[in-house]
Amino acid sequence: MNIGMLGTGMVGQAIGSRLVELGHNVMMGSRSAANENARAWVRSRGQLASHGTFAEAAAFGEILFNCTAGRGSLSALEFPRRSDLNGKILVDLANPLDFSRGMPPTLTVCNVDSLGEQIQRAHPLLRVVKALNTVNVELMAHPELLHGPHDAFICGNDLEAKAEATRILNEWFGWKSVIDLGDISNSRGLEMALPLWISLQKKLGTNIFNFKIVK
Amino acid sequence: MNIGMLGTGMVGQAIGSRLVELGHNVMMGSRSAANENARAWVRSRGQLASHGTFAEAAAFGEILFNCTAGRGSLSALEFPRRSDLNGKILVDLANPLDFSRGMPPTLTVCNVDSLGEQIQRAHPLLRVVKALNTVNVELMAHPELLHGPHDAFICGNDLEAKAEATRILNEWFGWKSVIDLGDISNSRGLEMALPLWISLQKKLGTNIFNFKIVK
Q: Choosing among B101, B139, B144, B203, which should be mutated to test the A contact, i.e. which has the most A CBs within 10 A?
């Protein structure tokens, strides 16, 4: 499958690398096609990997992954043509972290809105599925790094898109448990979990942990 | 031990009832000593249970539990004399839920501040320990309702107060795992977990669930 990645940071590289391993054609998109992260990643990943602008990656992908920093997600999504977004699934991995106040980061949007909702409102025909924003990049495509069961969370308005995202998480990334929380407004809860995640990271001294829902 | 409860709702009744079962003297405090919830609770719980005003309950308790609705916590804590609060442990179970926008509730404070921090700032000599706000009232004093391990979270500035709160959670309420997240600023993460909790409640169709941290 042809897959478009928006963002060239750690999340884009981790997800993109896993997708190339699985035999998919992956184009990593950035603000400038000359992006050094993207060029280095392409050199290291062989013929299935390519890079381009946000617009080119969106045009290329049958499915898109939002791997931009949350504060840049809305502006990144302004570059593609509407016709290259409409009808496509966007798996939104981003968190709206605001580092301008220092550490720990706060959120640029929360409580009465969320980045997932903002993206969906800005692009009503894009099929946004919030996913995996509550785990660190190392775990996103390698949940087997943790022993014992633990949960991935998704939400979104489009049932078919969520079914496809669940299949990707299950079959491509290896997630055994994917909990669909409902419509895209549940992005609020998923993004607002970040401060607790950051508290836990500090306490546990590792990024490699996750939530398991016990009932 | 003499224990003062602030608040007469479900949380106050559940915690107060467990403390009476354990043989403690519990005074349930409310805005008015004529509070019907408190009177009914006292009638059903026998000689160890009593009720009074917020000021009387704070004066009575060697340890205090904040079981008020979060939007009323700061005003409830204005009634006691400072000398009846200073030096005491306040186990803060409250969430700053705002139902004024309809369901699901939002938070009255979040992101750059939290109710736990507000209480601690308003009463610098009160030893605030945020605890158990991420589980439903039924689980607070009965974690054994869930099978398999799951976690309680606490935070606060005073190490001795957190050690005592941990002992109470372990020995009185039966929590096997209590994770201390650090200083009271970690209340932000604990309170901001509520929207995810609410999404999960809707999805799972039950209040009886909790988070387990897998690492």
A: B203
